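Mods, move this if it's the wrong board.
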Amino acid sequence: MPHDLIGWIHTFAAFIALLTGSIVLTQTKGTRLHKRIGRVYAVAMLIVCATAFMIYRLHNTFGILHIFAVISTITLVLGMLPFYLKSTKNPVLTHLAWMYWSVIGLYCAFTAELFTRLPMLLNLQNSYGIFYMLVGVSTGAVGMMGSLFFRRQKKMWETIYTANTN
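Not the wrong board. Structure tokens:
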């Protein structure tokens, strides 16, 4: 549960990013709607990442969740850069891959956030080991499922977007 204004902003932006990221993943790519919703996702994720660096609840230090925020920021930036730099061979495929992983990373963070509430709900004391185990297991499970879907999507995207660029 958020404890302050930064926490509430982070939570609200994460909710918007989850919603818009899910829509973008499931809808037709390249449409006007895709671009509009994608921009909302990108802004929401920038807010999520920025506020993540302002939240220090565990040991008041830069921790594992902040490392995930760094990774999330990098995937988001790498997903947007191909359209601004046009430096990759196929900017559409590069964008699709990085943005897909941006959304999957958000799903990982969401499940980790849900599962890390268990020790508190079960009133477990000195639960840092359980906390980190739950972060690892939930992130790993969602990441593996995301990887399976990504492989299937990537083949389809390569067929569609490589044929369109030749």
